[in-house]
Design brief:
Shape: globular
Radius of gyration: 20 Å
Largest sheet: none
Distance between the termini: 35 Å
Number of strands: 0
Length: 415
Amino acid sequence: MKSSAGGLAKAAWLLAAIYYFYQYALRSAPGVMMPQLAGAFGLSAAGMASTIGLFYYGYAPFSLVAGAAVDRLGAKAVVPVGALMTGVGALLFATGNLAAANIGRFLQGAGGVFALIGAIYIVTQSFPPSRAATLIGATQMFGSSGGSAGQFLVGPMIAAGLAWNTFWTAMGIAGVVIAVLLALLLPKSTSKLDDGWLASAAAAIFAVFRNPQSLLCGLIAGLLFIPTTVFDMIWGVRFLQEGRGFDYADAVMRSATVPVGWVIGSPLLGMISDRLGRRKPVLAAGSAVLLACLAWILYGQSSLLPPHVLGLVTGISSGAAMLPYTIIKETNQPNLAGTSTGVISFMNFSLSAVAGPLFGKIMSTVSGSGQPRLEQYQTTFQPLLFGVALALVFTLALRETGPAMRIPAAIEETV
């Protein structure tokens, strides 16, 4: 009986992880079709970047909704709804109508947030704490694989003549199918809403927010994610073409090595953290390596390193951004696992939502009406270096929550 329950938990986690793969592919795919999208919607590159960035305007606020809902209703009641929203959002984006596309991109983010929160909720409810960082890292591995597929596979298809709207229509249909499978296969929850559910959800969100460690986790995750969610996924291919002089195919391949690195780094760093029983040393080391990689990407000579190595190491080190998702869960009460994940996702992607149009505005200002050169990209994205350095400083202020510390009493006192 116990083996059967364990198998069901693994299947539930796997389904949520596949959903996370799917939404990450949608998140990254626009980066390899920016010219086609800009032409279809009649926007400049900066304007198109703003439309694409609406994903994060949906993702951030719905993180709080998803976290509280999962804690109270369970994964089965809410995660399939999120997948359906994501699929409908992709279908709206495929229409070619700017207003519909804006709504669709927002829905992709609003629905996509349920994937990671649902997966982490399942991990928290069904697996021992000693495996938490490893499984959360493995969840991010699925997402990273989707991010890589959104560039590594979609880029060549677009280059070969696949219409951009055909891609989005197919992905919309896939989202609806995933929603149906989740509704059928996720285990039922015994949780029910009571009369005071709204006040209870608000109190849970407030309890997580008032914990200073939660705020540090959200800031660290956000500052470490921006180099990938904004720089690589939106601007990466264009930076390599216009700033470094690579042709389109080579630029796509090099940009895609970053999410390939996530595939390796997210579960690897999580596993190392679980083996050490500590979170901070791994998080600090990953942040430091990411800072060095970004500095080299912007200011170093790309010809001095073998092709694809820098992007791969950047992706591996950025996998440390998932460790705050484990830390925030450990520094708050166990029954607030979904809410904690929602809060950190809200803070994380609120930063990405602000950073996307901000970088687009800086680029428009420094490049004017001409094609950006390397100097303009360096000026625009130099703040990334300061952000990662600040994340490293915040890491030093975190309290260690790894299993080796065994401080459950201290954790209880903070919430």
